[in-house]
Amino acid sequence: MQVIYDGSFEGFLCIVYEYYYTKLRPNTIKKAHNHGLFDEDVYEIQTDLNRAQKVLNGIKKHFTINHYQAILSVFSCDSIDFEKTLFEYIIMGFRDKNALYNLHVKGVRDVEKWRKAYGRELHRWCGFVRFKELDNGVMYAQFEPKFSLLTPLGKHFSKRLGNHKFILYDSLRRLALLNFDGKMSLQNVHEVCAPPLAAHEGEVSSLWRTFFEHVAIKERLNPSLQQQLVPLRCQGFMNEFEGLHVRGDSKIWEDSTFLHKGQGLQPSKKSIAFNKSTL
Fold first, then answer.
1. With pLDDT > 70 as the criterion, what percentage of the chain qualifies?
2. Where are the alpha helices (DSSP H) in 129-176?
3. pLDDT the model gives residue 243
4. pLDDT in tens, 133-162
5. Is residue 193 packed enough to be buried (19+ CB in 10 Å), middle (13-18) or exposed (0-12)?
6. Residue 27 Cα distances to 40, 99, 118, 180, 269, angstroms
7. Among candidate residues 100, 93, 167, the one with its CA nearest the CA of residue 136
């Protein structure tokens, strides 16, 4: 049987719930928007927050904190088909939590591999995100990570930037994290109109690029190593390499209006757009 769910963590936990209470035995698990139109024998999970909370409480009670964090990390690896493996990992942990230490099991190895990949990607973007100040004082950064990183990056930069308002825009997923007045919210974005930068931003960026160029030792230049440590997909969003690469998403810079809706850290159902008059 092919099981589909709405793509949320709560919806995924409801699959675990139905495994125990309705004897659901999925052969494959997919997000609703990924399954084929003519797929047969498809069962759609209805997300129930009470059921999801019950499973979550069970995970927190029976799993170690490291295994619980591994589950959260792997679920954020949205560019990977992790659902069936993570589902079996959770079921295995409920049966015997010590089995989750057995790296001879392929599912355990895969979860550990994806957890490490997620940690590396998060660590990379904590250092590579580059903010630019808009003319209204809001700090704005655009990037395209492999995995869904907005929430942990938002928490990281809320500590680094203090009371500054900032926007993190994941242009690959069309999601933005807004941190205004100490409150964070995730918003779906349908298009972006880049507001003008602060008057001094061009000078600051130029000074930073000048420092970047002069601190380098020409005799020790190693482009291959640089590309290994700072992948090309990251360089396109960094001031140091500005003008050297073409950014992937150029069609989003269109006139639009900004609707600030939604609460918490779940994406609102209503899409928003950015422009100067509404930030």
1. 84
2. 150-161
3. 61
4. 998 889 999 999 999 999 999 999 999 998
5. middle
6. 12, 22, 26, 44, 30
7. 167
Residue 252 CB neighbours (<10 A): 18
The rounded distance, in Å, linking the Cα atoms of 85 and 271 is 32
pLDDT of residue 81: 93
The bridge status of strand 132-133 relative to strand 139-143 is antiparallel
CB contact at 8 A, 75 and 152: no
Contact status, residue 128 vs residue 237, Cβ threshold 8 Å? yes
DSSP at 273: E
Q: Which pair of structure tokens corresponds to residue 232?
A: 């090309």
Q: What is the pTM of this model?
A: 0.81
216 pLDDT more than 80: yes
d(CA 122, CA 126): 6
Residue 201 has pLDDT above 60, yes or no: yes
- Burial string for 55-87 (b: 16+ CB within 10 Å, else e) reads bbebbeeebeeebeebbebbbbbeebebbbbbb
Q: Which residue has the higher pLDDT, 257 or 242?
A: 242
